[in-house]
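Recap from last week: sequence in, structure out.
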Amino acid sequence: MALTDDDIEKIAQLLKPLEQRLGGLEQGLGGLEQGLGGLEQRFSGLEQGLGGLEQRFSGLEQGLGGLEQRFSGLEQRLGGLEQRFSGLEQRLGGLEQRFSGLEKTVDNISEDLSGFRIEVNAQFIEVQHNFEGLYARDEKREQEYLLLREQISRLERRVDALEEKVA
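Predicted structure tokens:
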């Protein structure tokens, strides 16, 4: 069957709306392609932004790791300081006990020295009375009196020295 001009014309008439529709579809496809290009650009921008955020996050993780290490170091130092402080408290407690014992010893020595001084003074007065009597009787006894006085003086110096050590 051969096509006539009339048939060709009819076919052409039928094809025109299809061509118009096809042209509309092609324009729509072109618009979609442009939109897709815009979306691809936005997606590329988002990927770059995401890469930047990933780098920033990685930097923050590293910074956090560094802070954790510093914190751990500070915790260790604090533990060491707490141990040293505890040791110092124990030493202080020991020193307080020793000091208390020394205070009691000093008090006892002071009491002993006070009693000793009273005893020495009483003996001195007694010796002095005895010497006065001896001196009046005999010149020979005067030398003995001077010797005893020297001994008393030495005893007094010893008492004074002991009192200075205690003070």
